[in-house]
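Lab notebook, bench 4. Still working through the backlog of constructs that have no structural model yet. Next entry is a single chain of 340 residues. Request: give me the structure tokens for it.
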Amino acid sequence: MVTLKDVARSVGLSVTQVSRALNDHFDVNEETRRRVKEEAARLGYEPNISARKLVSGRSGMVALVDTKYPGLTSDFLFFEIVAGLSSEFARRGMQFVLHVAEEEDDIIAVYQKLVGNGSLDGFVLTKPVENDPRIDYLTRRKVPFVVHGRLPGGTDYPYFDIDNRWVAVESVTRFLDAGHRRIGLINGIAHFTYALARFRGYCDMLEARGIATDPALVFHGHMTEEFGYRSALDMLETDPPTAIFCSNVLIAAGVYRAAAERGLSVPRDLSVIAHDDALPNADPAAFDPPLSTTYSPLSESWPPLAEYLTGAIEGRPLAEMQRVERPRFIDRASLAPLER
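Model written out:
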């Protein structure tokens, strides 16, 4: 069996240097990391997790905990998250574990059990909520974690996020500048912080133009095509909007379907903008007409999340493990000036 010493001897580096390169430590330059990984792959080296834990006190295992919900097994977005994180941690020689809790489980009790057995080095947290008890618990226990998203106000933990408020502000501003005043929002689940940031951005921009938020034009729920379809049908029933902002492309697909069923044309009768996570099989450019979007590929989240959790485990400075990216706007053909 090929050992770490064999790889070190082959590349002419110390065992420590090779180990740090294989585990993507921040103090190893890219060329050294590439050379070591290529040689390790050529030699057929596989890390021994049990031996690594004996030496370092770490298992090389991290986890994502989620709660079972209706439709989980068909939730395409969920599996994109799991697959992306698993792949990225595997690149770093780490094992990624998924734990799905029952809906009735006390989520903190689940974390207590996982932390208590001592087999995990840290956690990835997704879908944070205000006053998130997971963040409070892991912080108090001094357990390393990273958050995909962030809480409003100050944050003293590692995270990677996009500017979700900007996503709504940019979209609603474009509608307003095109003359629209009745603007709908079909958003994610209301208590998730990304959905809250988008809702606040939506409300703020309407208020800035002297327009009151109409509760009949705001829907929150699981971001699926079916949710978008049913929400849009309800909106279009009476006093319909002339524009709708959708929190993802799947929702927008449902809106397009509902508009067609109501005999409405996009964008002549209804303008639509969505946020695009660049999910496979959900290409906004293939919509008819092509869909205008704020664009930020979900896949770009996995490397920083893996890097920051690794850094948290190693005790890196917090300032190196916090980042917010602003998406960019892609103007296609689903937005038109209001002609009424």
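Notes after review: The chain has a mean pLDDT of 91. The chain has three domains: 4-46, 61-162+299-325, 164-298. Flag for follow-up if needed.
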